[in-house]
Amino acid sequence: MSAALDTQGHIASAARTDAPPAIVLDKVNKWFGALHVLRDVDLQVALGERVVVCGPSGSGKSTMIRCINRLETHQEGKILVDGIELSDDLRSLDAIRREVGMVFQSFNLFPHLTILENCTLAPIWVRKMPKKDAEELAMEYLTRVRIPEQAKKYPGQLSGGQQQRVAIARALCMKPKIMLFDEPTSALDPEMIKEVLDTMVMLAGTGMTMIVVTHEMGFARQVADRVVFMDRGEVVEVGTPEQVFNDPKTDRLKMFLSQILRGH
Amino acid sequence: MSDITASTPTLHGGSPARSAPITAVGPIAWVRANLFSGWLSTAVTLVLGYLIVRAVMGFVDWAFVNAIWSVPVNGNGVAQTQACRELHGTGACWAVVTEKHRFMLFGTYPFEQHWRPALVCLLFVALYIVSSMRSFWNWRLIPIWAGTLTAIGILMWGGVLGLPYVPQERWGGLPITLILATFGLAFAFPLSILVALGRRSNLPAIKALCVLYVELIRGVPLISLLFMASVMFPLFLPEGMNIDKLLRAQIAIILFAGAYLAEVVRAGLQSLPKGQYEAADAMGLSYWQKTGLIILPQALRTVIPPLVNTFIGFFKDTSLVLIIGIFDLLTAGKTAIVEPSWQGFGVEVYVFVGLIYLVFCFAMSKYSQGLEAELNRHRRR
Amino acid sequence: MSDATVDPRFRRKPPKRPLRLSWADERVRGIVWQLVVVGIVGSIIYWLWSNTVHNLEVRRIATGFGFLGREAGLPIAEHLIPYDPTDTYLRALTVGVLNTLKVAVVGIVLATILGTAIGIARLSKNFLVAKIAAFYVEVIRDLPLLLQLLFWYTIMQGLPGPRQALKPLDGVFLSNRGFRLPALVWEGAHTAAVLACLAGIVATWLYARSARAKQMADGQPRRVWPAAIALIIGLPLLVWQAMGAPWAIDWPALRGFNFQGGMSMSPEYAALLIGLVTYTAGFIAEVVRAGILSVSQGQWEAAQALGLRHGPVLRLIVLPQALRVIIPPMTSNYLNLTKNSSLAVAIGYQDIVSIANTTLNQTGQAIEGIAIIMLVYLTISLSISLFMNWYNAKIALVER
């Protein structure tokens, strides 16, 4: 909330270039069967940096961030999260999933648990936190996303926007160092998009490392330190929001931007 | 969308709503629409109506008006059934039920101890009712089932708490049917969950084992498994070790039920959206945490109606133990009419036994239908 | 996607990862888990197997299928192929398999007809029809099949003797010796007519296909049904006529204490068939009803809004969709009927289970006897489900 805004209303970067990078993707390749969906993807995200990933559908952007917490396994190249390399080693997997929170397009709240139980589940079972502490923590985050009064309800009783804010709170309850957002507003009705984006802007203000797959250009301009444009499994352009949106270098990006602008 | 709905008339300023004409609502309209909507429908209604009246009257005559409810018994304890035989099928001889109902319900259990199997039956019914209540659908059901089934075992066997010991060979009738079905479910259910999880596992050997088990059992009739239990089991065990016939049949029923339930549970697992698995993974839950906390609680809830239907199936299928000579409700009924003086009154006995099955199965099937409708309403919201 | 295939790198194959020997490796865990489970299951099976081998030795029970060639010496009342008690066990078991198939095939056909009728009746607008059908379905499904079979068998035994047999129709006799029906004296002309009918069906199918292809080409719908009637009914009649139109009926008649002539149905077979058909029809009715209901009202409305009439809507829109819902559960009902026919042993109809059971009692070779039963049913189950899977895949493909 108290984030320092620079002249264009952009939240000041909290990226710490002095610290080792939070995420490193080094020549990452992935196939679905014979289909080559990620091609030599290189990307470094600094601690506290906010990266927005955009690109046409099927460009591999969701696959890329799903590789970061290993919901998908990459087959070539290296991924380092918080200095730990992703491998078949289950210990490294456990460590990484504790540090990385994820918000899905379709919320994926657990419908048989209350909002509070959704939020306390992982702290209790993964972080081995006492139930009382976990509930306090959950209420703290639910207050931050401004829905503490819904704690005893079930997900089915909430609107889409509220559900997505719960999903953000649920991820935050694990006190992650990195947050991944996979098209968090795509499944929402237009009037609910703003409340979710506001929550994400608020989160950005706290200095959280974030990777966000989204088409919300306004959000990207306001929050992103860097924008990554992907197409056909490749990172095509990387730059500040101004560079990418105002001065596209490649035809692919130009075409994408014209389609996006026409669409809005 | 909004353009279409805008054409509906607004309330204010419009003419007051008239009630529909009597030809559109009310009992007359209902009868017309549902019974006499055309010449064909009218003809069908009249013919069927006539047939139903004839059938009901015939049944009432047979079952009540001309029926004989009791017959004298001579000094040797042999029933005098001449009166029944003189009816020549025009009336029911309910005397066979009056005379033999204790035998059909409890078999050869010691007569003065019949309160024990009777209590056992009540305990089973109570267990079913408790299990049907949604407020009990959680881990509490496990101790409730364990406790009730233990109490049932104590009551049937006795030998403790001042109850005389009754060997298993003397059990019979309805408790056997309930025991086979309920214990079958209690043990087959956990087995089926493991098999269903195994069948969805990505470990090829485990998956293959589960598929083989399910498909093999589902491909053969229950009778062949019961035969196996009755004639092959003794060969399987080391010399000198033996288990009684009821337990062997029970094992066969558990193996049988496990395969069918596994398919029901698997359907529930498949019905969960992939996102639920992914969200649990993203949180860092382990396989067993994910399965126990996220997947099973949801999957099992959605399959309760088909689960109840499968249970109704087992409840009926336990009657097959008749073929290997175990004394369940149906066997007891069939045995009751072996006595020469009662021979030929099978219809009455089967109607009586059938009514007992009908009461149990009808209650369960109505429950499952109601539940399904409720769950569907829930899902649509 | 198409330009992705142009990219040469598309052909690059994903590399294999090396396996590290560590408990933290997921694949190592997977292998260990599998070894543990297979090991446990394997050792249980080995334990049972070695016990069995030991027991067989101790009890001096012969093993192997050598007994199949020995004289069976067991009488079988009903047989589709010539059989005598002096025949071998193999022949006796074959008779049993054929008896199982005889009741299963006839049962499946009749249960489908009855079940479909009841399922449609449940959706009738006539309240009385719908309620009677619903009552039937509810009651028949809530009673054990074995109870129903015993009930029907009791009724059969309660019928009067041949001399006082019931005659509901001319030439039809119902007695405690079973049913007697008039039968056609089968001649070559009848076989030819049946073959002609089959040929007619194939020809109709080909004609309908080409008619449709022509309609697709020039837009003109063509009537298929006149040709269909001519090919399926007319052609066999013509063949039959050409071969002299034999029409001899063998009427059953009472001679002495039993009937002679006509077609007979033993009380056991009749009870089993009635029981299986009425029971399975209750389940099939629900399948048919659910299938019809599964096609939403919206589909009817959309098709009618396109200007299609009732017949084409049913044929082109509703049935293909309903069939896709109906066929899988229908398959399992057919399988159930076949497996349930094994209850024949309880009322003394000599199906494969009954004969194999007698065999294993006579020879003492329990394992072989039960293995034969299981093998027969697995084969039948597998063939039915393979056929239905093929059919299901076909209609799913054709309609897509």
TrEMBL record, chain B:
Query: What are the transmembrane regions?
Result: 39-60, 114-130, 142-166, 172-197, 209-237, 249-269, 349-367
Q: Where in the cell is it found?
A: Cell inner membrane; Cell membrane
Q: What family does the entry list?
A: Belongs to the binding-protein-dependent transport system permease family. HisMQ subfamily.
Task: Recite the UniProt keywords alphabetically.
Answer: Cell membrane, Membrane, Transmembrane, Transmembrane helix, Transport
Signal peptide annotation = none
- GO CC list: ATP-binding cassette (ABC) transporter complex
Alphabetized NCBIfam families for the sequence: HEQRo_perm_3TM
> Know the name of this protein?
Amino acid ABC transporter permease
Q: For the ABC transmembrane type-1 domain, which residue ranges apply?
A: 174-368
Main localization of the protein? membrane
A GO biological process of this protein is: amino acid transport
Which superkingdom, per the lineage?
Answer: Bacteria
Cite a single GO MF annotation. Answer: transmembrane transporter activity
- Gene3D superfamilies membership: MetI-like
The UniProt entry lists membrane topology as: Multi-pass membrane protein
From TrEMBL, chain C:
Q: Looking at the keywords, is Ribosomal protein present?
A: no
Please provide one cellular component term from the Gene Ontology annotations of this protein.
ATP-binding cassette (ABC) transporter complex
Q: Where are the transmembrane segments?
A: 30-49, 103-121, 189-208, 228-249, 269-292, 370-391
Query: Chief subcellular site?
Result: membrane
Ordered alphabetically, the record's keywords are: Amino-acid transport, Cell membrane, Membrane, Transmembrane, Transmembrane helix, Transport
Q: Which Gene3D superfamilies match?
A: MetI-like
State the family it belongs to: Belongs to the binding-protein-dependent transport system permease family. HisMQ subfamily.
What name does UniProt use for this protein? Amino acid ABC transporter permease
Q: Which organism is it from?
A: Neoroseomonas eburnea
Q: Which lineage do the record's taxonomy fields give for this organism?
A: Bacteria, Pseudomonadati, Pseudomonadota, Alphaproteobacteria, Acetobacterales
